[in-house]
Amino acid sequence: MLDCDRKALEYSYDFIVAQNLPEPILYPLDLAGAGPEHFEEMMTAIQTEFGGLDALVHCAARFEGLTPLEQFSPAEWLIHMQVNLNAAWLLSSQALPLLRESDSASLFFMLEDMARMQSAFWGPYGIAKHALRAMVHQFAAENGSAGLQILGINPGPMRSPLRSRAYHSENPETQPEPDRVAHCIMQLMNRESVVQGHFVDLAGD
Fold first, then answer.
1. Nearest CA to 49 among 30, 23, 31?
2. Domain count, the chain
3. Would the pLDDT of 57 be above 70?
4. What is the mean pLDDT of residues 157-171?
5. Is residue 196 assigned to a domain?
6. Which pLDDT score is estimated for 204?
């Protein structure tokens, strides 16, 4: 499990172990400052430790709130694009050789309601989501014969810190817990759900 927040990783680790599930491996990494060499080292470590890779799910995001485009500083714009877009390409590019060696591999990208992402104030977060959708199309077209399952997934509304930054007046209790989406993603990974095309909308499920 990769995250820039070591405490959050350790909390998740303790929860998983307490459920008597397989012990996860933690990989603290801040995507805002990660370069190609960091992802290359990660893939080498995965190959050495596990002998391969079966799935990669891109969930990382940077979003500080609804803001007009012109009010972003150049530095903040670049950090947003690094975390929300560049890191997804860097990590996927390094992971694809390992994924292609798997008998049933998955490469998933978390998207959004794309129509909403064209609205005002979503800033580089919204723009990056549209670019990620295009990335899904291209990766899928280029790896169609490799047996890879490449999907862009709209998880729909869920109770998360990211959503609370956009919908300040919303009662979080009105939204489902993220574990509902996690369960759906596991079903997709295990090929228990039939998918037409390369995009899945879980908002209505």
1. 23
2. 1
3. yes
4. 86
5. yes
6. 67
